[in-house]
Amino acid sequence: MERLTSPARLMIVSDLDHTMVDHHDPENLSLLRFNSLWEHAYRHDSLLVFSTGRSPTLYKELRKEKPLLTPDVTIMSVGTEITYGNSMVPDLGWVDTLNHKWDLGIVKEETGNFVELTLQAESEQRPHKVSFYVDKSKAQEVTKELSQRLEKRGLDVKIIYSGGMDLDILPQGAGKGQALAYLLKKLKSEGKLPVNTLACGDSGNDAELFSIPDVYGVMVSNAQEELLKWHAENAKDNPKVIHAKERCAGGIIQAIGEFKLGPNLSPRDVSDFLECKVENVNPGHEVVKFFLFYERWRRGEVENSEAYAASLKASCQPGGVFVHPSGAGKSLVDTIDELRKHHGDKQGKKFRVWADQVLATETAPGTWMVKLDKWEQSGDERIGCNTTVKFTAKEGEGLVWEHVKQTWSEESKLKDDSSWII
Ligand code: GLC
Ligand code: MG
């Protein structure tokens, strides 16, 4: 969070399963639309927070399966674990507050008396979260009975039912809502309370997110029955919470537009980049746009025309160099010629490219260094590259690419891939 020196323009706090991630869309289109919108228009001055019910183990699995961006803050295990940055540094202060009237042993003992409860996987049992599966028809009754028993044993817990199947038991002070309130308080104390915050969710454990004061909220179109019921009973008259018409990340983009929180046109929704005007001089945007073009080029979704090649070459410095992750260097112009040969070679295949953590710094007036992680998914294989691009602003021409350098990302080092183009 130290990355930002002033309050975030927008802080998005989003659930993952069935909110940011659409498990019914194998192409991940709405997620990829969100990703390019975030990287081109928000990453530099805003905060991305993921708030998931998953434990760190299952969260990391999801990251491998889906093209998720790297968030600034990761809240896991239904608001019981908060971590910061790429290296996921835990917030130990938060953990301390959760021990109040909480005893894991007693929770396990009492829940053992309920035949209706089936324990979830070991990975999902956490220091401040005990999770079960329970049939929809039994959920209310079990919740009531269990809370009475735990209260009698001196505990103060919160029992949350989500997705029509999951039952989580947490300390009363935990949960996604409390974790968000804690984060907002922390940011405020640093003088960095976000200008706007948007909470996004689809199921029971997200309900609390929508009752935090001054926070906008979107329940995605595919929200679960238990969340819609909670909304009807508790937040129907709050104009800051909407039920989107679009599914998952599409609903998040819709909410950004409806609440007027900032730009809501994803670069993926722009079909022809040649029509993008140059007045919009934004180096991060250039990079997002280029890699999207590259994806479409190899998928054969843009025409193999002289006009595109010429426009790409025109945006490169004549002596500009591209350093391949293998260490070999060649001119940017030759790289574009090379790219021409690969037009449509991924047609009909699973091939996607996305940029993560795009950050631009003006190193001298008119000179920009853009750093990003570029990811390429081809079939079931994914390769990442740490990429640095140097741009210079040229009178009347907008930004010109001067130098591109790529190195394999940590996860991709062993995969040295000769078919790599850019
Ligand atoms: C995630 C967790 C699970 C939890 C559920 C609802 O699926 O893995 O343990 O019960 O979210 O919060
Ligand atoms: Mg969910």
UniProtKB/TrEMBL annotation:
Sucrose phosphatase-like domain mapped to chain residues: 9-260
Domain Sucrose-phosphatase C-terminal: 283-410
Gene Ontology biological process: sucrose biosynthetic process
Keyword Amino-acid biosynthesis among record annotations: no
InterPro entries named among the record's database cross-references: HAD-like_sf, HAD-SF_hydro_IIB, HAD_sf, NTF2-like_dom_sf, SPP-like_dom, SPP_C, Sucrose_Phosphatase, Sucrose_phosphatase_pln/cyn
GO molecular function: magnesium ion binding; sucrose-phosphate phosphatase activity
Known EC number: 3.1.3.24
Top-rank EC class of the record's enzyme: hydrolase
Pathway: Glycan biosynthesis; sucrose biosynthesis; sucrose from D-fructose 6-phosphate and UDP-alpha-D-glucose: step 2/2
Swiss-Prot/TrEMBL cofactor(s): Mg(2+)
Keywords: Hydrolase, Magnesium
Catalytic activity reported: sucrose 6(F)-phosphate + H2O = sucrose + phosphate
Family the UniProt entry places it in: Belongs to the sucrose phosphatase family.
Subunit relationships: Homodimer.
NCBIfam families in alphabetical order: HAD-SF-IIB, SPP-subfamily, SPP_plant-cyano
Its biological purpose: Catalyzes the final step of sucrose synthesis.
Protein name per UniProt: Sucrose-phosphatase
